[in-house]
Amino acid sequence: MIWSEEARDGAIVAAPRGKIDESTAQDFGASLEGAVGRAADAAARLVIDCSGIDYMSSRGLRALTLAKRKADGSAVTIVLAAPNGVAREILAISRYDKLFGVTETVEAALTA
Amino acid sequence: MLVRFWGTRGSLAVAQTAGAIRGKIARALVAAGGRGFADTAEAEAFVDRELDFATGGTYGGATTCVEIEGGDGSFIVCDMGTGLREFGIDAFRRCAAGHERTYHFFMSHLHWDHIGGFPFFGPAFDPNAHIVIHSGHADAEQALRRQQEEISFPVAFDWLRAKIEFRTLAPGETYRIGGLDVEVMEQHHSHKSYGYRFTDDAGKTAIFSTDSEHKIDSMEGEADVAHFFRDADLVICDTMYSLADAVSMKEDWGHSSNIVAIDLCHEAEAKRLALFHHEPIYSDDDIQRMHQESIRYEELTRRETPLEVLCAYDGLEVRL
């Protein structure tokens, strides 16, 4: 899992790439937690650009939940943007598309 | 080894309503498209071949009870949910044909839906039966006696005629019981629960792991669960909720999800998973949908070895 991040249009846009499973979920969670902190400091929303995620297992999804709990406590909104077909299916099967806002593109997440 | 499911529903026994049966019949008639069938056998072949399971069958509504065959000839039974009543009736039939009258029970825990079948377990009235109740809980006897106190039930525990023993098992130990090797794992659930790993002399392994919540804030402990599931031929796993429900509204209710179960089985390189402890508010269509989604999730996250994803129903038999 490779993590990159930029400040853009009043948001923090994070772009994890690769597989997120039990071998990478801890790094993914730590990166998410850091990004939530930076978004809180900047009073910005956190957009996760999911287009580079090959797949995400339950470990990654639950790391998202832990990040959301921290974000909710800091009034930060997390939006999942541009999931590929596999990620979109996993979000639907897990019903995580009911817990998070999901947009077709990063641009839509920035303006939503 | 043969695993036979007598009760697969979680939390509360449920029954089909007249409306649900009517809907199944109507869908079957539409699927038949006006065809006629010469006899019942021909009609049943149509049901088996052309109807989906939620239309042509039902997942059932009895609570947890799973039988394992393959030991020394004694009965091996996991939990005493309402499915135990049907098992008891069938056990009488088999005993009449010469089956040994020793029963080894393995208790996941002592909540209602896992003990409520025992007062209706006919062989408990058989003076020639020997019932051994194995549990990780030292208070198993208290739980079974209490549910037959007069305030709750008309037949007292002491009126039962079988020889009944209680044995407390410890996690981490391997026991030889009923001709099987049995290992025990403590699980996260209210008042704790225990999972069991059964291995027969041919090396076939079945895991019984129900009412086990895999907590979001202790995911590092899941490596131990995967180790307990390692290389299993069948993992029977609590898959009551969607992951989203399990980490939000229903967190701390003590249950797991289909996708966590699949991930654990992948990590364990298990061969088969049986989705189990179905949510009582789910219709047959809901459970069938959950099964199809689980198969798809397994495909999306598969590693080298495919995991066969079964959906347990009352009456299912799985030969390992």
TrEMBL record, chain A:
Pfam families: STAS. InterPro entries: STAS_dom, STAS_dom_sf. Residues 1-112 form the STAS domain. One of its GO terms (molecular function) is anti-sigma factor antagonist activity. This is Stage II sporulation protein AA (Anti-sigma F factor antagonist). It comes from Rhizorhabdus histidinilytica.
Automatic annotation (TrEMBL), chain B:
Pfam families: Lactamase_B_2. Transmembrane segments: none annotated. InterPro entries: Metallo-B-lactamas, RibonucZ/Hydroxyglut_hydro. Residues 62-255 form the Metallo-beta-lactamase domain. It comes from the Bacteria. PANTHER family: HYDROLASE C777.06C-RELATED-RELATED, SLL1036 PROTEIN. This is Phosphoribosyl 1,2-cyclic phosphodiesterase. It comes from Rhizorhabdus histidinilytica.
